[in-house]
């Protein structure tokens, strides 16, 4: 019997492969290097190379491995989102882990593995590969969430995330199995072909519903959001920054491809658009209302990330090319402004403490004017104020909804943005209009400098992350043209 | 009804009792060790289904992986965890009836859907063709794993590596 040689187009998957290779190198060097910060910078080099390769590959679609994955403009754009997030998160972690005595080489390896899983999810055109990417991303994130092993809250976050994440994976697998049962294939394009041929099957509809539920868990959409605040609060802040953008982005990357390539041209396209619209309204409203009374800034950002999942779902619900473009732009914007906000929060965390309350921001404009300006930029951008990048993200997804005849959805979104201004601006008010809080020692052995105001730990790497994120938030806001036109050149292949 | 049909039905009922009874035992047993043993019973029932469906390779895999690896691993984990062996505790709290209601609802929905589906039935001819013979099953799977499914196969190894590193991190003695 002849042996068929499979077509192995490794080049098409070069960016995730580079990231996996870097992760392995980090693991290897971990044995030899005593200063673990070096490993962070090594990871950063890998991330930059992978980003460069992604850009060099350009938006020419190339399928690979018997149509298991594709490197189209869509996947490459998501690569940039994930790599930007990973790069900034590594910069935050280099100093953050040092300060909290958590510095370990495996951290950077797991973070890179997780990023490679996200990139595979964006490139996958087969439910099996989507699932494997999802699991690589999630398993690494479960461990990272519990990386702060001395704190009970971190262990709780890891446990909660693991159990609910495993639950979500089960939903996803059940949905994939039923879809396979109905259509006879796990390939998204084949599923699309079968469904567009006028075929319909109640099993495929239930499969779609379960797939949607699985993804809703991962992107933290209501009613599957209950894990979010506890996990975001308990995990180390450098991890929260990474997963708030990365896991959400990867969930949306795979969700949109499944919906559009698989179920786009089917009898169910109106069903999933309506489901996404309902999820969007619930998610936005719950996230914003729950964020209002929060005193802990990390928890507040956790709820606000639920709200942002809602805004992005508006773009999904539009079920159009312009909706997809809006989501792409939004996620890139979200990467910079949200990771930036977490970078400031992690810079303000004192040694031995793992969260910041509103009081920690009081009078920051006098103590650290630059940091206060940066946080103000991130908060305004998250609110959606022009001319920052968050404004354009919201504009594009809401416009897509209006074009799709869902003006009501855009109106709900705008009202929600107004509500969100209350809690985002609350932080700004603290920074500029309140006197600095007296430093109250909460650690044994720190009584000596009890009179000093809280020290701000603005080390080089975190400072770089804050500065880069702020610059990109402002520059892309003032000059959104290049990214907006880049997004139009990045269709689903 | 011909004799082999009767035998098949009786065997099916036995396997069903094993699977469902085992599943129920997992959920209601007050000792976690007993739950794990019930899980083995439930897995064994599924092996029987695969045998009845002429899926010999799947049956072997189910036996080797689910009973031979996963269930045994669970038993080891329980035995090696301090205090878990002797502990007796109820698995339900005040909200058990809500959970039961939701589970029932999901069951009804799924059952209704699966009832309505127009299941394609392969012709006897297709079933008898050599490409579907049981002896071919394993080699075809191997061919597929190194052919169309080579990327999932490779990516799965990355997943296992990540899980392995994670387990080492969680289990490592914390310094200081």
Can you describe what's shown?
- The complex is a heterodimer of chains A (493) and B (176).
- By secondary structure, chain A is mainly α.
- Chain A has one domain (10-488).
- Chain A is 72% helix and 1% strand.
- A two-stranded antiparallel ribbon of chain A has the order 1-2.
- In chain A, strand 1 and strand 2 form a beta hairpin.
- Chain A is globular, with a radius of gyration of 22 Å.
- Helices cover 75% and strands 0% of the residues of chain B.
- By secondary structure, chain B is mainly alpha-helical.
- The mean pLDDT of chain B is 84.
- Chain B has helices spanning 3-28, 32-52, 56-80, 96-116, 124-128, 134-145, 150-171.
Q: What is the radius of gyration of chain A computed over CA atoms, rounded to a whole number of angstroms? A: 22 Å
Sheet with the most strands, sense and barrel status of chain B: none
Counting helices, strands and paired strands, the structural category of chain A is mainly alpha
Low-confidence stretches of chain B: none
Distance between the termini of chain A: 35 Å
Report the strand count of chain A. 2
Question: How would you sum up this structure in a few lines?
Answer:
The complex is a heterodimer of chains A (493) and B (176). Chain A is mainly alpha-helical. In chain A, 72% of the residues lie in helices and 1% in strands.
Topology:
The complex is a heterodimer of chains A (493) and B (176).
Chain A: H1 14-30, H2 37-57, E1 62-64, E2 69-71, H3 73-99, H4 105-123, H5 127-145, H6 152-183, H7 188-196, H8 202-219, H9 228-234, H10 237-262, H11 269-291, H12 297-317, H13 321-348, H14 364-367, H15 369-383, H16 389-403, H17 407-433, H18 460-478, H19 481-488
Antiparallel strand pairs in A: 1-2
Helix pairs in contact in A: 1-2, 1-4, 2-3, 2-4, 3-4, 3-10, 3-13, 3-18, 4-5, 4-10, 5-6, 5-10, 6-8, 6-9, 7-10, 8-10, 9-10, 9-12, 10-12, 10-13, 11-12, 11-17, 12-13, 12-16, 12-17, 13-15, 13-16, 13-18, 13-19, 15-17, 15-18, 16-17, 16-18
Chain B: H1 3-28, H2 32-52, H3 56-80, H4 96-116, H5 124-128, H6 134-145, H7 150-171
């Amino acid at each position: 019997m002849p042996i068929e040689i499979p077509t192995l187009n490794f080049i098409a998957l070069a960016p995730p492969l580079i990231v996996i290779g870097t992760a392995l190198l980090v693991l290897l060097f971990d044995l030899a290097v005593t200063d673990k910060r070096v490993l962070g910078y090594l990871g950063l080099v890998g991330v930059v190379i992978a980003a460069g390769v992604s850009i060099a590959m350009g938006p020419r679609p190339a399928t690979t491995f018997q149509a298991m994955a594709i490197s189209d403009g869509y996947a490459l754009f998501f690569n940039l989102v994930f790599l930007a997030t990973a790069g900034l998160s590594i910069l935050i972690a280099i100093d953050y882990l040092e300060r909290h005595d958590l510095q370990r080489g495996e951290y950077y390896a797991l973070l890179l593995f997780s990023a490679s899983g996200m990139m595979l999810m964006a490139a996958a055109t087969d439910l099996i590969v989507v699932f494997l990417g999802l699991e690589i991303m999630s398993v690494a994130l479960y461990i990272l969430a519990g990386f702060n092993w001395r704190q009970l809250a971190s262990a709780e976050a890891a446990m909660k995330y693991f159990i609910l994440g495993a639950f979500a994976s089960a939903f996803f697998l059940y949905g994939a199995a039923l879809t396979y049962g109905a259509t006879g294939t796990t390939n998204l394009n084949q599923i699309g072909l079968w469904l567009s041929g006028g075929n319909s099957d109640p099993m495929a509809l239930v499969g779609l519903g379960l797939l949607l539920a699985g993804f809703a868990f991962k992107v933290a959409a209501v009613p599957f959001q209950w894990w979010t605040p506890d996990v975001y609060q308990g995990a180390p802040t450098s991890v929260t920054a990474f997963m708030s953008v990365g896991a959400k982005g990867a969930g949306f990357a795979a969700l949109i491809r499944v919906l559009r390539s698989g179920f786009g041209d089917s009898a169910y396209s109106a069903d999933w658009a309506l489901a996404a619209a309902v999820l969007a309204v619930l998610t936005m409203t719950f996230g914003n209302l729950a964020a209002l009374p929060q005193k802990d800034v990390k928890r507040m950002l956790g709820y606000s990330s639920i709200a942002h999942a809602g805004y992005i779902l508006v773009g999904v619900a539009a079920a159009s090319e312009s909706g997809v473009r809006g989501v792409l732009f939004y996620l890139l914007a979200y990467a910079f402004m949200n990771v930036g906000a977490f970078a400031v929060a992690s810079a303000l965390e004192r040694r031995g403490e793992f969260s910041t309350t509103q009081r920690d921001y009081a009078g920051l404009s006098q103590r650290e004017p630059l940091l206060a300006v940066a946080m103000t930029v991130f908060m305004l951008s998250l609110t959606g104020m022009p001319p920052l990048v968050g404004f354009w993200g919201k504009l594009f997804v809401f416009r897509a909804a209006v074009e799709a005849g869902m003006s009501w959805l855009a109106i709900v979104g705008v009202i929600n943005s107004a509500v969100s201004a209350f809690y985002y601006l609350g932080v700004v008010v603290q920074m500029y209009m309140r006197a600095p809080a007296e430093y109250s020692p909460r650690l044994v052995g720190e009584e000596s400098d009890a009179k000093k105001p809280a020290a701000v730990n603005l080390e080089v790497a975190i400072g770089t992350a804050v500065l880069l994120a702020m610059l990109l938030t402002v520059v892309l806001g003032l000059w959104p043209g290049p990214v907006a036109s880049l997004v139009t050149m990045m269709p689903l292949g | 009804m011909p004799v082999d049909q009767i035998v098949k039905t009786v065997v099916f009922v036995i396997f069903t009792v094993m699977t469902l009874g085992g599943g129920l035992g997992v959920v209601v047993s007050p000792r976690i060790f007993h739950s794990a043993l019930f899980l083995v019973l439930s897995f064994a029932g599924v092996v029987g289904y695969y045998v009845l469906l002429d899926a010999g390779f799947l049956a072997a895999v189910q036996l080797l992986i689910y009973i031979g690896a996963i269930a045994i691993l669970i038993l080891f984990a329980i035995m090696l965890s301090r205090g878990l062996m002797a502990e007796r505790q109820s698995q339900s709290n005040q909200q058990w009836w809500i959970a039961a209601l939701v589970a029932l609802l999901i069951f009804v929905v799924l059952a209704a859907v699966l009832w309505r589906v127009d299941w394609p039935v392969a012709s006897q001819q297709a079933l008898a063709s050599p490409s579907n013979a049981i002896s071919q099953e394993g080699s075809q799977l191997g061919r597929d794993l190194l052919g169309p499914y080579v990327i999932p196969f490779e990516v799965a190894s990355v997943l296992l590596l990540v899980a392995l590193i994670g387990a080492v991190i969680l289990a490592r003695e914390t310094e200081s």
